[in-house]
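Anyone else keep sequences and structure tokens together like this?

Example one:
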Amino acid sequence: MSMQVAHRSSTSHAPRMDSPLIANGPPLDYSFKELRCCSEIETEEPRSGLKRGTPELPKDSSGEQCEEGDVAAAGGATASGSGATGTTMPTRSIVAQGGKPIRKVLRQVTTAVKLNNNMLATVSGLQQSLEFVMNSVVMNLQWIDLSFNQLVTVEPELLRFLNLKALYLHGNCIKSLSSVDRLKKLPKLISLTMNGNPVDSTRIYRVYVIGSLPNLRSLDHSTITQDEISSAAAWYAGHQERAKKRAEERQFAGLDDD
């Protein structure tokens, strides 16, 4: 009985050698490409990062590039075969088990995209274009830099990326604070930049954004304190109530005119 128990214990704690290691890959960098519309992403080559369908050969422990046969022996994972987990790159890693080296596959998933310093006036078609260059963009995209473009509002297209944690919009042409409210539909958003837009000259800019998006932890590269969160929440609730009363007064005034 004791021998059977010992056998089950050693088996249950043995590492699974068939499951690949997963890590975030470098951002897909399309900055300074003079892009005027999102569809141009499909034909441009990124400055860095691994574009979907262009896997690189892995390197061995000495830093030498492996041959294609080594990749196949390591498991044969490729960017086009990564499925729902996103853009991947096969990389060999040496894992010792009982003194015997075993090849592993490190799967790199693209989670970040840089589109800063272009000429984008809209992000219409962004999801479709990113799906051309990375796998499972809706699930995997967590960080996107759209700074220093010509965007005039927060478009509904951005709300498709529900796992987005960081959104850089500084240096654009956004004028309306109310467009910030749309970002409430991004439940995981914790870092936002909007400085350098006309909207940031509004006296209530910072308190409005923090009150509207209570899950934020950083605004314009500045950490949001707990005191700011509390005071902004109280201010925003009052602001909403005052706005509601003004709307009702305008409605009644219109009825009186009739």
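And example two:
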Amino acid sequence: GRYIKAMLPRSGVMRLAVDATLRASAPYQKGRRERAGPESTRKVFVEDSDVRIKKMARKAGALIIFLVDASGSMALNRMNAAKGAAISLLTEAYQTRDKIALIPCQGERTEVLLPPTKSISMAKSRLEAMPCGGGSPLAHGLMQAVRVGTNAQKMGDTGKVVIVCISDGRANIPLYRSEGEEREEKMDKKEMKEEILALCKQIGALSGFSLLCIDTENQFVSTGFAKEMAKSAGGSYHYIPKATQEAVASVAGSAIQTIRNA
């Protein structure tokens, strides 16, 4: 880590801050020399109360959260591409502190299938059975990704959070329904889109967060909404029809590198 400031030691001295220790002892040198007497050959007198240690900035890694649309006909392809990309990025991340998480969007609400980890074996075992089909609770997925990323940042070992959303943005489960709330008036498609864009805008305003949208639908089916999501978050959009795990890993890896160097 980087030396950011000096501080008083709480227990044993780990890394001595020589500069700060000498500054702390400087005002007392004359008195200490007089007490030591003329026979002392010491030039500098340092006592325990002068000792300062270095506070180091902890090198924080990135957290890459794969938020995958696991509904519809292309669900299995998207999930397999995300799984392969997650394991590929973990394999390459052995020199960094980067972690991977994966959240599938399917059913009424999203659950974190793979919590933040650096473990390849944990990723492989957790991603063995991947749920697919049902509704597309994208709004709840975005909320879950924010919760996972915020909690990781609070732990102190995560700096940047990159949400890699693999979807065309076709949501059909509103947030209130995912959270178990009953309403007389149902949300229409336009309102659900507005809800998702508002969430994307909030993600763009969060410190250290970035949204990367990957649209895997072919051009005849794609709505182009994933591009709007990326724009609302100030993030990036990539159109990769029939995405392979190599393509997803390459795009996500490049985006993380760009964000880290920014």
